[in-house]
Amino acid sequence: TGLPKALSEGQVAALLASCDAETATGRRDLAILTLLARLGLRAGEVSALKLDDIDWRRGELAVCGKANRIARLPLPSDVGERIVGYLRDGRPSTAEGRTVFVRAQAPHRALTSAGVTTIVATAGRRAGLGTIGAHRLRHSAATAMLRAGGSLREIGDVLRHRRAMTTAIYAKLDLEALR
Questions:
Q1: 62-68 CB contacts, 8 Å cutoff, 24+ apart
Q2: What is the distance between the alpha carbons of residues 127 and 161, in angstroms, rounded to a whole number?
Q3: Which spans in 40-76 are helix H?
Q4: Rounded CA gap, 43 and 38, in Å?
Q5: pLDDT (tens digit per residue) in 13-70
Q6: Which of 5, 66, 69, 72 is catalytic?
Q7: Is 162 a catalytic residue?
Q8: Which of 16, 61, 62, 65 has the most CB atoms in a 10 Å sphere around its CB?
Q9: What's the pTM value of the predicted model, to 2 decimals?
Q10: % of the chain residues with pLDDT over 70
C-alpha cells in the first residue's frame, strides 16, 4: 500500500489560520479542525461529541468511536481553548440538544458527519490546499505524533486502533528508523 496522505505542519497551520476566529462560524470551524488535526478524531466522532463528554476538571474527552466503543483521550490545552471559545462566543443559545457542534444556520441542530467533512473541504480550499477530506487530518495527526517521537503503540492508542497492523502503515513514514 502507499504512504498515508498527511498534511505538513505548515499546511495544518494554514488550514487553521483560514478560519475567521472573529465570527461564530469561524470559532466553530477552528475548534473542529483542531480536534481533527490534534487528536485524529473521525468526522463522525466530532459530530457526535456531546457537552457531557468533556471532563474539564480531568482534562479528558470521552469519544464514542466505531462500534460505539467509548475511549477517554487527554484534552490538550489548545484544543480545550478552542472548544471554550466556540462554546462561549459561538454556539447559539438556541442550539438544540447536547451536541457540542451545531449548524451555523437555524434551526441549530447537531452538525452531521457530512457537515464536518464539508467544513474541512471548505477550509482546505480557503487555505489554498484544494479539497481535503476529514480523514486526511487523522493521518496528519498520526504523522505529527510520529515526528514528535511517539511510538506506534502510542499512536494506535490515540487513534483507537484495535489492531497494531492498522497503525503499522505509519512505520513507513519514519525513514530514519527504517534506515
A1: 63/160, 65/160, 66/42, 66/160
A2: 30
A3: 43-48
A4: 13
A5: 999 999 999 999 999 999 999 999 999 898 999 999 999 999 999 999 998 877 677 8
A6: 66
A7: no
A8: 61
A9: 0.85
A10: 83
pLDDT at 143: 81
Cell numbers found for residue 14: 494554514
Question: Is 86 known to be catalytic?
Answer: no
Name beta bridge partners: 50: 99
Distance CA 20, CA 178 (A): 41
The answer to whether 172 is a known catalytic residue is no
Reply yes or no on whether 108 is catalytic.
no
Q: Strand 54-55 and strand 70-74: pairing?
A: unpaired
Measure the CA–CA gap between 152 and 173, rounded to whole angstroms.
11
- 58 catalytic per annotation: no
User: CB-based contacts of 3: which residues, under 8 Å, 6+ apart?
Assistant: 169, 172, 173
Percentage of the chain beyond pLDDT 90 is: 60
pLDDT in tens, 89-122: 999 999 999 999 999 999 999 999 999 999 999 9
